[in-house]
Amino acid sequence: MSNNDQSRTVAALGLGAMGLPMATWLAAQGFPVRAFDIAETRMELARDAGVEVFTSGAEAVAGAHLVLVAVRNQPQLEALLWGEAGIASSLDKGSAIVVTSTVGIQAVQDVAARLAAEGLELIDAPVSGGPVRAGNGDLLMTVGATDEGWALAEPVMQALASNLVRIGDQPGDGQKMKTVNQLLCGVHIAVAGEALALAGKLGLDKRKALDALMSGAAASFMLGDRGQRMLQAYDEGGAEVKSRLDIFVKDMGIVADACRAVHLAAPVAAAAEQLYLIGEAQGKAAQDDSSVITVLAPEA
Known about the structure:
This protein is α/β, with parallel strands linked by helices. It is 52% helix and 13% strand. It folds into two domains: 3-170, 3-Layer(aba) Sandwich (Rossmann fold), CATH 3.40.50.720; 176-296, N-(1-d-carboxylethyl)-l-norvaline Dehydrogenase, domain 2, CATH 1.10.1040. The longest helix has 29 residues, at 173-201.
């Protein structure tokens, strides 16, 4: 491997709904990608897409100075870095870790401080846009990074994001912006379910109602995207799982924590959070988040 190749090498750890399409997109753009996931099925998909896969995170990060991390939450992030098979000790000093997940403001700040003490840089770069856009380099990425971290990660982030926003110069700033983003996304999905449930209860054809709504002032990205899957929520097996309902249990919990920390009332976000929690209690955690419509209207 040439020095130029090594400087472009990216280790992609976590090949879930967002991690896999990001890894395959980077590989398609000519970045050498070394990938790992604990799920063999995800590794197979990455391999089939031409991504080089490894049997452990430590092996995957060997020779990579930039590590792209897509995990579900803070415990998974900390286990990846410092658990029994943690990668932090396998990284060269000066390496950078790009956290693309929504794990919370304080979580990223704590992890960044610990990594800095070990000579490692954390770039706080949560993404938004969904798996399809992740596979096309069309994400929104809101970044909190030092000048050094930004310089290390910018080429990779530019490849992944059609809208790359450096919102602040410290880890945690990206999470702050993503928290604001998720407040809106979580509310938009919940209210889309509420609107289409109402259309159904009023005896309207929900597909026609969705088409009409998307042509007027009530249109939103989440209504158009999740609305289509809400129409499938009552089918056997439900809609294809592109974003699990329990992701928004986590994310709306992060929103609630952030609001409490600054003493901001957020009654609409709180109502949406309750809807996801009810769905989780009903056994819908692993279903697509569009299944919130069935929480409100159990029958089609």
